[in-house]
Amino acid sequence: MYKIKREVLGAIIEASKNTYPHEFFGVLGGSPGEKIVDELIVVPATYGRNFTLIKSHLIPFDSKMIGTVHSHPSYSSRPSKQDIATFGKMGSIHLIIAYPFNSESFNAFDSKGIKTAIELI
Ligand SMILES: [Zn+2]
């Protein structure tokens, strides 16, 4: 099971609130061997109300990047078809945080979009 550091979730919550009503997108950093998310990497992206265009050619891809996070300005943290397509390309752990952006309004998914457990540490 993946774990996420409380301070990383705090940074995600803050970024999601700051970007609202647009979507926030970031990359999760950590050590894949230990399955611990210990860093939020903010990447160049164009934020829209219901979409995020990731400028993936500007992302310095390295082995520290283990997944993604994005916000939904709605109450639903269900991944869209496009979300799942992105998940498949960008690591193995993916978070969606829904409005109102707190430690209860997010869910974690694997690269196929299947809901997965994540522990706050
Ligand atoms: Zn989404």
Structural notes for this entry:
By secondary structure, the protein is α/β, with parallel strands linked by helices. It is built from two helices and ten strands. It has one domain (2-120): Cytidine Deaminase, domain 2, CATH 3.40.140.10. It is globular and about 35 Å long. The protein starts with a strand and ends with a strand. The structure holds zinc ion. Zinc ion binds next to strand 6.
Furnish the topology, listing elements before pairings:
Layout: E1 2-4, H1 6-19, E2 25-31, E3 36-42, E4 45-47, E5 52-54, E6 65-72, H2 81-89, E7 93-98, E8 106-109, E9 115-116, E10 118-120
Parallel strand pairs: 1-3, 1-10, 6-7
Antiparallel strand pairs: 2-3, 2-6, 4-5, 7-8, 8-9
Bound molecules: zinc ion.
